[in-house]
Specification:
It is a single chain. By secondary structure, the protein is an all-alpha fold. The chain is 45% helix and 0% strand. The longest helix is centred in the C-terminal third of the chain and has 13 residues.
């Protein structure tokens, strides 16, 4: 069974501890809740969920124009750091 479909059974105390840990920013920052890239994946969102998130965070999409040389610099920085560069088109 793929990891994303596995079911884990936890007792009430474990559930309480997990909820407290997830609500505690320090547990994320210090790695207690994990940092293994094997378990990281992009959260898929519907357009309605994205709109709700933008509204909740008071975000607004914008369009900007940047010099081509600067975009080239960003692409280089992304490559050096092993990051994907997404075009805006």
């Amino acid at each position: 069974m793929p990891p994303e479909t596995e079911i884990f059974l936890m007792n009430a105390e474990t559930v309480k501890n997990v909820i407290e840990a997830v609500d505690n920013d320090d547990c994320w920052d210090n790695g207690e809740l994990g940092r293994d890239e094997q378990f990281a994946r992009e959260a898929k969102k519907t357009s309605e969920q994205q709109a709700a998130l933008d509204e909740a965070l008071d975000l607004q999409m914008i369009s900007i124009r940047l010099p081509k040389a600067m975009i080239g610099d960003f692409k280089f920085i992304a490559e050096v750091n092993g990051l994907k560069y997404q075009t805006l088109r």
